[in-house]
Amino acid sequence: MPVNFAAPPAVDYVRFLPEIVLTAFAVILMVLEPLTAARAKRYMGRIALVGLSGALAGTAWAGLAGGYAFSGMIVVDGFASFFRVLCVSAGILVVLASLSYMRREDRESGEYYALILFSIAGQSMMVSANNLIFVFLGLEISSIASYVLAGFLRGSKLANESATKYFLLGSFATAFLLYGIALIYGSTGTLYLEEIRAALAATRPGLLAGAAASLMFVGFAFKFSAAPFQIWTPDVYQGAPAPVSAFLAAGPKAAAFAVFLRVFLTAFGPISARWEPIVWASALATMVVGNFAALTQTNVKRLLAYSSIAHAGYIMVAIVAHSVVGTAAVMFYLVAYVAMNVGAFAVVTYFSRKGERYVLIPDLAGLGVKQPVVAALFSIFLLSLIGVPLTAGFFGKFYVFRAALGANLVWLTILGLLNSAVSVYYYLRIMVVMYMHEPAEATEELPPLPFGIHAALWASAAATLVLGIFPSPVLDYAMRAANFFR
Which residues are bridge partners to 75 per DSSP? Predict the structure, then answer.
């Protein structure tokens, strides 16, 4: 093992500080759950917000003491710090949106917020992992908590169905990942990413290494909903509680892309010629499946699920570019994606009302009159998802396709742009219903906008607009952090 992996024990814990803070607060919430009166459970979400804020501070501290920790099992660099901040920030937005939702559904509990913190701790482990075993541990910690969150409303048959599907298919995908890890260990004799890269670069890699990369791609592709492993996404997003759907579309997906980038651009960089065609084909299929399936949807949650699949395809276009510019484009796009997607699901959380009875597109009729501010913010998120200028989505797609053109991926760029044009229809369809259709007489009146959802909406909208007007600070940081695989 390389000597530079060694670090003093105290420094190890500093570099692992965000995960420690998240786990500690999750345990505190679990311990307080049976000891807290029903009336006081409303404070559980606020405790979770304190824990997430502490994790952000811990991320900053860990970033200042960057380097390897725990014998090289994790590495804290600009790339890891970027995604730690992104995953924790997504968690803060989701918790804010959940405060009124859990009260509305009479399900306020510390268990719910503890699961979110545990999942984010797993995501944070994933994005800083430098060893495939640590990748697996982070992935499973995040996934197991996510499975439970998807079925958190135990009285809902739809939620139970979504959680069961998610668990069964997720376990199956994890088996592919583990088999790939076993094969690469058998091929190179190590699980450390830099050592795998050195071993593959030093010799002519055999079929075993290519098979390992393919199997691991299956495991990761399931997590970020890439075709043909996306079939679980619409069912799970529809059945899960709306804030959980927002969470699944944001943090776990961002972490999965981050670990995919680190593993494939570092460990499997020498055999990129073998896995790039697979990612190319999957990117195209993902865009096509996501966009064309979204055209026929009437349920807003399912539409946003297929939309998230399509956006995963756009992100994969930049991954195929296999360059610093492409990696930076992925990082920027994921920030934009988290902001606009969590914001869109926060709107769904609000207008769906108790029991999520109003989740169809016609249920949005007249929202522009009844709640003009909410409708305007939703429009910002939809326009950003389309890629309209002055929104984060525009620069996200611009940098993704520029990276693809820089790598001479002309046909993939053209097909990606055509797919993006298809998406205009189903996003604008929602806006037309909000502003140009009269609400049904039997529709229940909307309640006042709760503080938590109000804060999540404005924070998401601010990020969407700021990134669309001033993209340079985030992109410049991403360009510096993207040099990790060189």
Answer: 68
